[in-house]
Amino acid sequence: MPQIMKIEEAIKKYVKDGSSIMIGGFLGCNTPYKAIDQMVKQGSKELTIISTVNSFTHQDMGKLFDAGLVRKFIGSHIGTNAVVVNQYRTGKLQVEYYPQGTLIEKIRCAGAGLGGVLTPTGIGTLLEEGKEKIEVNGKEYLLETPLSADVAIIKGFKADKKGNIVYKGTANANPIMATAGKITIAEVDEIVEVGELEASEIGTPGIFVNAICLGYEKDEFIQKSRDMYKAVGIFK
Predict the structure, then answer these.
(1) Global pTM?
(2) 177 Cβ partners below 8 Å, 6+ apart?
(3) Rounded CA separation 125/65 (Å)
């Protein structure tokens, strides 16, 4: 049974020095802003961050890199964050790249308890170095092994008190990451009573969730999103 907790309590309880952390969201969309801000405030170091992309310079997830809290990033893209690019070039940050589809499949395999996924993506490129090749029906594939994390931090729209999560708009990697964390923290806009959510709406069953936390109030969340996109020149 998941616990309803303040985000400060959840981060303190589950995020430690050296933890591997999956963070849902994509360039600020459906991103757990409040959890990220609390991680910066707490200051746990030597983190491994797993996410599809690294977001923008000085924004949301980027604050963790600004604060020097991250040892390694596992994802598909860092080019939108100048700080991260500089840390990588100067040897301060390790980066492990995967094509985005491959990354998601690795995470999905971890959540489903599978031994890996076979993909042709990367054959004949640097991505095949050090990986096992398997031939199926005359075609070569790379074996990509499962990718899990100590903690998955996801962003949902609503949760009931048993941890069932509903997403609004784009869910991106949040539902898949929720299955692949040893611990899953769900940051949501609203917590409702059991029975108030339609079964057909639920994107993450509560069995995967350990902590349910309220994020920023709606107006504050919207303002943070607007401020971020203004800062990077998407909005004026």
Answers:
(1) 0.92
(2) 22, 23, 24, 50, 107, 149, 152, 154, 184
(3) 29
